[in-house]
Structures are given as C-alpha cells and as structure tokens.
Design brief:
It comes from Nocardia thailandica. InterPro entries: F420H2_quin_Rdtase, Split_barrel_FMN-bd. This protein has four helices and seven strands. The protein is of the alpha+beta class.
Amino acid sequence: MSDTRAARKFRVERALGRYVANPAVRVLDRLGVRTTLATELETTGRRSGTARRVPVAAAFDADGAWVISQHGRRSGWGANISADPRVRIRQGERWRTGTARWVPEDDVDARARTFAAHPAFAAVTAATFRALQSAPVSVRITFDD
C-alpha cells in the first residue's frame, strides 16, 4: 500500500472509530450489552496521564491476550502503550491488568484468524482485519494479576 493511500485510510478509519464505532460500543457497554466482537482496552494517556478506553478485538488465553493495532504505533492507544505499557483489558465482566508489548515479528494475518469465534469464520475475520488496517502490528498483553 502506498504511503499516501495508507495515510488516507488511517485518517478515515480513525474518524470512523472515534465518531461512530467507539461511541456505539460505549453506549452498548453502559446499557450492559457486551459483545464477543469487541472488548475494552484501557491505557494511560501519554500526554494527559488519564485513563483512556478504546474498544478492541482480542483473543484471550490463560496468560494474557493478543490484540492487533491496525494502524501500528500511530493509533492513539498504540502511542499510549509505547509511552506506558501498563494496561487493563476487560475479559468478560472482569478487568485484568497487564503489560503490553509490540510483537512486530508476529504474522498479523495468521493472528487475525485466531480472533474468529469459530474456525469456519477465520478467513472472513482475517479479511475484515486486512480491509481496516494500514500498518498492522500484533500486541501481546501479559496478565499481571
């Protein structure tokens, strides 16, 4: 993808997330409606120092969670974890604390397939991630609690 096209895609995706998707997930969360398609990631704002929450897709295991920053380190939460890797992530009804680290050597397409609710949907899940990303990087969150 060209740099110009990636930058344009990033701006469009950021606006859609900021003004459409993120508010919709917040409203549903306040109403008590949870989805397996998204959970909340809480980071510390790199400039403000306050808690920042953003909906993300996550694949949980016994030791932590995988998330994909679709726009790499230039996403807001990506920049926040670069400044302070301590995070909280909601696993069902429970908030888990952990440490996030970038895993640039991870195969993002293969990782996206693991986010599917059923193996039959793995290809569709990976294609959806590809459609929304500009500079994807996997992030591993290791639980501290």
